[in-house]
Amino acid sequence: MPVEQIWEATEPSEAKALVGLTDAEFAPVAKRASELRDRHWGKTISYSRKVFIPLTTMCRNTCGYCTFVKHPGDPGANFMTPEEVLAVAMKGEQLGCKEALFSLGERPERRYAEARNALARLGHASTVDYLVDACRLVLEHTKLVPHVNAGTLTQDEIARLREVSGSMGMMLENVSRRLGKPGMAHHACPDKTPLLRLRTIEAAGRLGVPFTTGILIGIGETWEERVDSLVAINDLRRRYGHVQEVIVQNFRAKPGTAMANWMEPSREEMLRTLVMARLVLDPSISLQAPPNLEEDFEAYLDCGINDWGGISPLTADHINPERAWPAIAELARRTEARGYRLVERLTVYPAYLGIETAPLHSTLANMARADGLARDQFVA
Ligand code: SF4
Question: Which CATH number fits domain 3-49+163-367: 3.20.20.70, 2.60.120.200, 3.40.640.10, 3.20.20.140?
Answer without folding.
Answer: 3.20.20.70
